[in-house]
Amino acid sequence: MPAFSWLALFFGAFYFVYGAYLPFWSLWLEGMGVSAEQIGMLLGVGMGIRFAGNLMVMGRIKGAGQLLPVTRLLCLLSLLAFLGFYLGHSLWWLVVLTLVANFIYPTLMPVGEALATRMVIQTQLDYGKVRLCGSFAFIVASTLVGTLITDLGSDWVLHVMVLGLALMVLLSWLPLDPAPRDVVGERARPSLRETLKSAAVRRFLLVTALLQGSHGAYYGFSAIHWKAAGYSGTAIGYLWALGVVAEIAMFAADKRYFSRFGAQTLFLVGALGCLVRWSLLGASTDLTLLLLAQLLHGVTFCISHLGAVRFMTRDLPPEQLIGAQALYAALSLGIMVAALMTLSGQLYGPLGGGIFYLMALAVLPVFFLRRHVDMGLSGRD
User: Fold this and answer.
1) Rounded to 5 degrees, what angle do the CA atoms 140, 142, 144 make?
2) Could you tell me if 135 and 143 are in contact, meaning their C-beta atoms sit under 8 angstroms apart?
3) How many Å apart are CA 327 and CA 194, to the nearest integer?
4) Residues in a beta bridge with 177
5) What is the 3-state secondary structure (H, E, C) of 322-381?
6) Within a domain: residue 379?
7) Distance between CA 375 and CA 378 in Å, rounded?
8) I need a labelling partner for 316 at 20 to 30 A (CA). Which of 120, 264, 297, 345 fits?
9) How far apart are alpha carbons 232 and 146 in whole angstroms?
10) How far, in Å, CA of 162 to CA of 80, rounded?
11) Whole-angstrom Cα distance, residue 115 to residue 120?
12) Which of 186, 244, 188, 238 is nearest to 215 (CA)?
């Protein structure tokens, strides 16, 4: 199967599952009788263990040829892990399963991204277009699950996820053509520690950690906050879907309109979007402001993520791609989100929507740091 089609299906299946998990897992936990503080702890622990999972799994991948077998194994183990949530709902059982599931399942994200960035190098793949297939699947799942929660209850969050994971297992075994391979003349892949020695990589990770980490309150508590304000599960699903519609628009426009911009410019735009978006969400639950804030998801997440992809594919040598992808997933999309999500859980009780103002403060250093992201590398921007 051509690389574009394979990756479109893979991203579609992964983000269909993620579209059920990310907006609504907190509501599933709430339906199991878990308190807001415990939800924050579970979500934070889950995001934190991604750090170990991403580094341990990605750190053991010695070359591009290992990406596909690892993907297939992770799909199967992810399905088995989430099936375990049917077996019990005690707090300690939820803690154990949260650790196991989040060690395995989220690692599919950096592995999939590593496959995609490898295909950008091998086949000049249009990353934005293939990635938007995942965003579209996220919309389908969030809208579907929001309706199912309203009509049938929060149990359907887990049901939809398990069905999606079963589909992922089947899709992962489709042949990929061309198979991922190391570039001719590519030097041996450095270790994660060696990759982290690069000052430019460290600055890149700090900037992206602040940008992506600031989504912690949104990922963990927007559904609970909006539900408390009187919005139904269906409405919450539509709000999340609107955010991803904006994301799709940005991914679709990437090659035509944004390809001339480097990482520094994209990070600046992402930071500005974060300041506005989190301020809006902290200020009000008025529907008009929520709609505007959700449209800004295309800036806060997508433009920031495109900046990360731009840095990794343009400003790094190919042999550092897998290592940088692992560190980006573990630190920027993992442990920083976990830390700010856990903090949001502790402060949601006394502050309510005020936790979003803290997320806006978190991105302020980006305005200085982003200017030094590619210093010593390509010099773009």
Assistant:
1) 65
2) no
3) 12
4) 2
5) HHHHHHHHHHHHHHHHHHHHHHHHHHHHHHHHHHHHHHHHHCCCHHHHHHHCCCCCCCCC
6) no
7) 8
8) 297
9) 8
10) 9
11) 9
12) 244
377, part of any domain: no
Which domain CATH number covers 73?
Answer: 1.20.1250.20
Closest CA to 308 of 61, 96, 116, 40: 116
User: Terminal CA-to-CA distance of the chain, rounded, Å?
Assistant: 37
pLDDT in tens, the chain (381 residues): 888 889 999 999 999 998 899 878 888 988 888 887 788 788 778 877 877 777 787 777 767 778 888 999 999 999 999 999 999 888 889 989 999 998 999 888 888 888 887 787 778 777 778 878 888 898 888 888 888 988 888 899 999 999 999 999 999 899 888 877 766 545 556 667 777 777 888 889 999 999 999 999 998 889 889 988 999 878 888 898 898 889 888 888 887 787 788 888 899 999 999 999 999 999 999 999 999 999 999 999 999 999 998 888 777 777 777 778 778 877 887 778 878 888 888 888 888 889 999 999 999 999 888 666 554 444 344
- Which tokens belong to 377? 């590398």
Predicted TM-score (pTM) of the model is: 0.70
Cα–Cα distances (Å) from 194 to 21, 311, 315, in that order, read 34, 18, 16
- The string over 162-180, giving b where at least 16 C-beta atoms fall within 10 Å of a residue's C-beta and e elsewhere, is bebbbbbbebbeeebeeeb
Q: Rounded to an integer, what distance in angstroms lies between the CA atom of residue 193 and that of residue 178?
A: 30
- Per the structure, the count of domains in the chain is 1
In a domain, 381, yes or no: no
Q: For the chain, what's the residue count?
A: 381
In this structure, is residue 182 part of a structural domain?
no
Domain span at 121: 3-177+188-372
